[in-house]
């Protein structure tokens, strides 16, 4: 896996530029990025204690621009978002993730709209995002733990791996 990510300065479908990033080497360097415009929503409330337990920081952003900046300035192991941003918001979120690392584990909680999961997977396919997962409804804590475990396996960070 390469440590090179595409820096998107897009005009239509065109990509320009390349940026380098360094993956985290320990849980204390790692971050989980939560994309939500509601600081105390259910997803934030669920994931915050998990990140504290795992020893990773939780970075919360409310826009795709904020996501892009956070991905460039932290060492993310995963991105978690909900679909409240709508299709256009999901498009920009996946675009920002791909600009950083198309393999970065990204969980999109689709809520009760079954078609939204298909939309998210379609957008991920268009952007060639290989780490996107969807989860319908409100995720159970065990589902978030499993997602973070898989993200830990991908990153190789021992703090995120089961003992």
Reconstruct the topology from this structure.
Elements: E1 4-6, E2 18-20, E3 30-35, H1 42-54, E4 57-61, H2 64-73, E5 75-82, H3 86-100, E6 106-111, H4 114-127, E7 132-136, H5 141-155
Brief overview:
This protein has 163 residues and is of the alpha/beta class. It is built from 5 helices and 7 strands.
CATH architecture: 3-Layer(aba) Sandwich
**SSE class:** alpha/beta
| Helix count from the secondary structure assignment | 5
CATH class wording: Alpha Beta
The radius of gyration computed from the alpha-carbon positions, rounded to a whole number of angstroms, is: 15 Å
CATH topology: Rossmann fold
Give the low-pLDDT segments.
1-21
**Structural shape:** globular
Strand content: 15-25%
Q: Biggest sheet, open or closed, and with what strands and sense?
A: 5 strands, parallel
- How many strand segments? 7
Oligomer: single chain
Secondary-structure element order, N to C: EEEHEHEHEHEH
What is the percent of helical residues?
A: 40-55%
Question: Major sheet: order of its strands?
Answer: 4-3-5-6-7
Mean pLDDT level = 80
Q: What is the count of structural domains?
A: 1
